[in-house]
Each structure stands twice: as C-alpha cells, then as structure tokens.
Amino acid sequence: MALRGPLSRLLRSQLGHTCQQSRAQSVAVLGAPFSRGQKRGGVEHGPKVIRDAGLIDRLSGLDYSIHDFGDLNFHYIEKDEPYMDVKFPRTVGAANKMVSGAVSRAVGAGHTLVMLGGDHSLAIGSVAGHAQQCPDLCLIWVDAHADINTPMSSPSGNLHGQPVAFMLKELQDKMPDIPGFSWTKPFLTSRDLVYIGLRDIDPGEHHILKDLGIQYFTMRDVDRLGIQRVMEVALDHLLSRKQRPIHLSFDVDAFDPSLAPATGTPVNGGLTYREGIYITEEIHNTGLLSVMDLVEVNPTLGANPEAVQATALLAVDVIASSLGQTREGARASIDQNPSVKDDTEQLCL
Ligand SMILES: NC(=[NH2+])NCCC[C@H](N)C(=O)O
C-alpha cells in the first residue's frame, strides 16, 4: 500500500525528491485560453471565468505564495487544413508547444502549477512540459472521456479527444506524423496512468485501454467500489513502487452535468460533488501533486449565468481542494461536540 498523508510528506522531504523539494510553498497559475482542440467556441474563456469565480483569493487563503502568470497568447494559424481527419493540427500543435515550455519553466522554477484551460487537447503540452522536468511523473486523468483516440480511431477528428495517445510510448507506432507536433515524443507508459470517471468510451479507445491493460475506473466502478476504494487502488497502482510527482488532469465534465453544465461534451451519470472533491483531497494528501490541469469550462454553453457560475465555482473548489483546502476543521468540531454525538445516538435508537 502506498504511503500517504503526513508520513509520505516527511519521507519525501527526507529523500529530497528534486522535482518536489521546494514546491509546497509556491503555486503558479497559468491561463491557457484555447479552443481549437474541439469545435465549440467559448472554452477559451475558461481561464477568465475561473479567475472571476475567485480562484486567486481562494488560493491565497491556503498559505501559499501565489504567482499568477496570466494567460498565454496563442496564435491561430491560418489555412490550417485537416490532416487525415484531425482538425487544426498546426494550431493545436503550436499552442501545446507553448504550453509545454511554460509548464516546464514553472515546474523548473519550483512552483506547483495549475493550468486553466481551454480544451483538453492542452494536456499534451502540459503533461509533456511537466515530464521534461519530472520524467518519472504519473498521470491521473479525471474525465467522462478517455481522450485516447488516435487520429485513425477518432470519431470526431477533434484533438481534445486524443491527447493521451500523444503521450504513450506503446501507441507510438499507431501515431502518424501530424503537422505541428514534431516537437514532442511519447514519454509515458501505460502503467503510469489511471483514469477515473469514464462513461463515454469510443470503441477504438476501449480496444486501446484493454490492449494496453490501462488501469481505469468507470462510473460503474465508482458505483460498485465507492470512491474511497477507487482512490486507494488508483494511488496504490501509481505509487506503491515509488513515490513520484503526480500530474492531475481534471476535465470538469467528469462531474455530473447537473453540477457542471457549462461544458462542451457533457455526459449524464457523472461524479457527485463529494466524489470529485474526495479524489482531489486524496491526491493532496499524498503530498505529491506537482501539476494540475482544469479544463473544458465553457461559459457560452451554460443555459443561464447561474449555470456558468456554478461550473466555474466548482472548478475553483476542485483546484482549492487539490491544494489542501479542507472542511476537516468543521468535521472535527462536530466529531468532538458531545451534544451532536448524543443526538446521533438518540437517532440510532
Ligand atoms: N476532452 C473532451 N471533452 N473529450 C471529448 C471526446 C469525445 C470523443 N470521444 C472524441 O474523441 O471526439
């Protein structure tokens, strides 16, 4: 069983992992306003609505020094013809190259990094940049979708459904040379990755997941096992052999659409609020979170301003709890409050 919580943090500080050492005190926030990994406009406004929902204030309350790096400035390449069926390959490739450089520099400078998307194609650059600094990282992908289509298996041609295929060494011979992506080579093995929350897997993706023996937890698995057991198995799978940096790539569509309606590819039957937050609390408790992405908040797709605000606030909650915000204090005082305990006992009778 992997070590977690204060003990793992103590061990880690004693072992002095270079990728993590000075990380705990400093959090950097990087906006990536980008939408060409899919066809719906609006997801490029994700960083703004997440900031407007109070992200920086919330993180400042958590005892870090916060460095807001602002937003990257992406260029949309003209006449970016599809390659095979892949849409906007050069634009997505160039944006991810820029993300990769920025993430690598931030991690190299000792920050824990939060990347605000933008669509999920941006994880190609985010995880690649992280891997440049921390080649032994592991990846936790929380999402309704596996995003592991190759250009051949993709039903849509959208690159936000394909980022993981760019990362995996085992898929290298299935990936054509897509224009815009010559800067990156696969850097992860299928053992370094766990999915949580899946419920919309394309046939080609299912084949890849099974073929490579990737550890994944669908929503049905969450139903059967409970989120506590899912996290135990997931973290054990990634960390039992060695403690190493975690990259969390969190797509807001992992949540049920009733909680996160403002997103481009919602799928019914998603995570509850507590299930999603429990995932992030457990990741925080490892002491190993190094980079996280929060992607696919699209303010133009909410039915009304309240729906957009709810989705953005949820994104803030996910980020804050990944970085240690907790309601434990409130719970501890309930546990210690004898009158509450008495009530509970009476209710049991
Ligand atoms: N990051 C996302 N929202 N991905 C949705 C992907 C949908 C579909 N599987 C596709 O490949 O097009």
From TrEMBL:
Mn(2+) binds at residues 120, 143, 145, 147, 251, 253. GO terms for molecular function: arginase activity; manganese ion binding. Pathway: Nitrogen metabolism; urea cycle; L-ornithine and urea from L-arginine: step 1/1. Its cofactor is Mn(2+). One of its GO terms (cellular component) is mitochondrion. Residues 340-349 have a biased composition (Basic and acidic residues). PROSITE patterns: ARGINASE_1, ARGINASE_2. Binds 2 manganese ions per subunit. Its EC number is 3.5.3.1. Gene3D superfamilies: Ureohydrolase domain. Belongs to the arginase family. This is Arginase. It comes from Cyclopterus lumpus.
